[in-house]
């Protein structure tokens, strides 16, 4: 068994956490390659750990085979709009000797069919996972891993998701607003994912579960009302049925944010599924991140308010 997965190919946005491994794992340097689309406008830093940037047609198996050859691990944080592209990527990776493929999950518990069956993006996650199961374990022995983390806490709030709208300081509360869901700090998700590179004997053929906090919409409101010096937020009561219908209308009108409505409509639906920390084993500590307490939650939400006020988001 290799000591660690040294040669890493990244698709998507967790480069900062990969580069921080020069501090967290100084004796185990990574050789990082990046895969980026021909049409991409992404800018990448110059850094001694970044050994190659493969820019090309991510639907071309020959381009993928060149990029994937000699990689130990591929980490796919690919766009939710391109999830199915991972099927070709998995097939190619399994043929050129990649050891591990971290598939783009990074969300709700896609194994919970009650929760995720009705949402197209989660059906795509499951289609990719089934494909991964099919191509893994072949003669070259590739394994897959997926990271389930719940909502990206800071990003979803600042992007006006989960019902929270910082511009107008209003929140739409769906159903009771007391349904608990898992939320994770984005830094925690990135760090836990990167840690997989340093534990090559573990997590193969698994979805792993991490969560920074388990909270409801009303828990978030309570904390916001304490830390937001501008005073209490306005609450608008809605149902998840209303949200689902709005999502469907938006999608029919070509607004893909409707897909996000569909996600929160199931996530906050009373009685549908439950917070995964209640039935799955969380592996936070094994992947080097904390399961955080309520005291920390106030600090994180205060940070989100500061970020909003500093104008870091629209
Ligand atoms: N749990 C949550 O709350 C939450 C929230 C958001 C996202 N996520 C998950 O996190 C993962 C990454 O999402 P993200 O929002 O970071 O993705 P994103 O910003 O939309 O895209 C990430 C990268 O994917 C690459 N890409 C490849 N094919 C693409 C295509 N056809 N269209 C657009 N981009 C393409 C692009 O890299 P290049 O430009 O370099 O080619 C892009 O920068 C996904 O699994 C998503 O479901 C979870």
TrEMBL record:
Residues 1-24 form the signal peptide. Keywords: NADP, Oxidoreductase, Signal. SUPFAM superfamilies: NAD(P)-binding Rossmann-fold domains. The keyword Protein biosynthesis does not apply. One of its GO terms (molecular function) is oxidoreductase activity. Residues 51-227 form the NmrA-like domain. This is NmrA-like domain-containing protein.
């Amino acid at each position: 068994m290799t000591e660690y997965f040294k040669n890493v190919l990244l698709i998507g946005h967790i480069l900062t956490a990969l580069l921080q491994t020069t501090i967290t794992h100084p004796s185990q340097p990574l050789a990082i390659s990046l895969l980026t689309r021909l049409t991409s406008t992404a800018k990448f830093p110059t850094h001694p750990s970044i050994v190659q940037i493969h820019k090309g047609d991510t639907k071309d198996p020959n381009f993928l085979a060149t990029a994937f050859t000699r990689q130990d691990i591929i980490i796919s944080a690919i766009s939710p709009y391109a999830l199915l592209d991972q099927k070709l990527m998995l097939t190619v990776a399994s043929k050129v000797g990649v050891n591990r493929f971290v598939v783009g999950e990074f969300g709700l518990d896609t194994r919970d069919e009650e929760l995720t069956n009705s949402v197209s993006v989660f059906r795509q996650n499951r289609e990719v996972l089934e494909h991964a199961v099919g191509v893994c374990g072949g003669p070259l022995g590739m394994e897959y891993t997926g990271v389930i983390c719940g909502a990206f806490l800071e990003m979803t709030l600042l992007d006006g998701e989960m019902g929270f709208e910082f511009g107008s300081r209003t929140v739409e509360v769906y159903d009771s607003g007391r349904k608990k869901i898992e939320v994770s700090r984005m830094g925690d998700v990135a760090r836990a994912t990167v840690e997989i590179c340093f534990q090559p004997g573990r997590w193969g053929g698994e979805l792993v579960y991490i969560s920074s906090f388990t909270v409801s919409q009303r828990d978030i409101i309570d904390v916001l009302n304490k830390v937001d010096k501008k005073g209490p937020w306005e609450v608008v009561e809605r149902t998840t049925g209303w949200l689902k219908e709005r999502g469907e209308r938006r999608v029919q009108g070509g607004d893909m944010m409707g897909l996000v409505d569909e996600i929160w409509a199931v996530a906050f639906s009373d009685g549908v599924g439950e917070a995964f920390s209640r039935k799955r084993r969380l592996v936070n500590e094994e992947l080097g991140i904390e399961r955080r307490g309520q005291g920390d939650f106030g600090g994180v939400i205060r940070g989100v308010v500061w970020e909003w006020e500093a104008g870091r988001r629209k």
